[in-house]
Amino acid sequence: AGGGGDRKEVAGKLKAARKAMLEALAKGDFAKAGAERAEIEAIVEGDEYLKAERRLEEAVREEDFMEAAKVRDEMKGMVPPPGYEDGEEEEEENAKARAAAPGKAAEKGGDDSLAARLRAAAFGAGRGAREPGEAGGPSQMEDLSKVMPEDVSGDSVMETEGITVKFAATYAPESSDVARGNFFFTYAVEFENASRDTVQLISREWLIQQRGGREVIRVQGPGVLGKQPVMEPGDKYRYESAVPVAMGAGCNLGERVVGALEGSFNFVKGSRGEVRFRVKVAKAYLVLPVIPES
Hints:
- The protein has helices at 10-26, 30-45, 48-61, 65-75, 88-100, 102-105, 111-122, and strands spanning 155-160, 163-171, 182-193, 199-210, 217-222, 230-231, 236-246, 257-269, 275-287.
- It is an alpha+beta fold.
- Strands 4, 5, 6, 8 and 9 form a five-stranded antiparallel beta sheet that branches. Strands 1-2-3-7 form a four-stranded antiparallel beta sheet, with no helix packed on it.
- A hairpin with a 6-residue loop joins strand 4 and strand 5.
- The termini are far apart.
- The relative contact order is 0.14.
């Protein structure tokens, strides 16, 4: 798929199908819009680059940056269809589609715009790749340039209503690009249910600060990595993900504290899940090792 003369028409067909879908949505013709959406899916499935880009979007939407980095590396050897604008046009069309059919937009909860920003970060774009999200929660802006690496840690532990959350972040040199100032950190989150109740994790919220950033970035979504785990008393649940930090070429490697994270997870308990409570994640820092200046 995606080879020869047929591939020259992929971008044009994709653009035409998206335009037809938007026009159908604007007219309220959802049957036509659905048919055009199916055509878009068929076009994407028929091209290896577009399929990989779709996988990348899905990984970023789920904050699975380890998978996103893997797909990104696969895409380095791929060539987009002639005339294709590498997803930027799709994001613009998706925004128009949400405006034309707000009822449908609720299905994704606005994740497309977030995915676009984080997708750029996963590809190692510059500092401006991620627009600040809505700041909120307990986090306050901290001047990370004044934070000494020996005074902070990438690990944190906090207990809320019998649920203990352990967080641990580790620098991943094999996925980082020091010359461009793009740094990658893997992290593990472990929950332990020491309460007497069966609980279920429903959603997450991360508050992320990057050194030199002007605002705290809020990242929200359902579950973790596409799952909403149920934990019986005494159960533990662990998942791993990653976060990219794009500082840009020429950044000061001597200022090793490049970011900070904290957040919370919403849980429910009760026979019908009627009791909702928030479990907090204590603040942890993203700290670079000592990296010699090249």
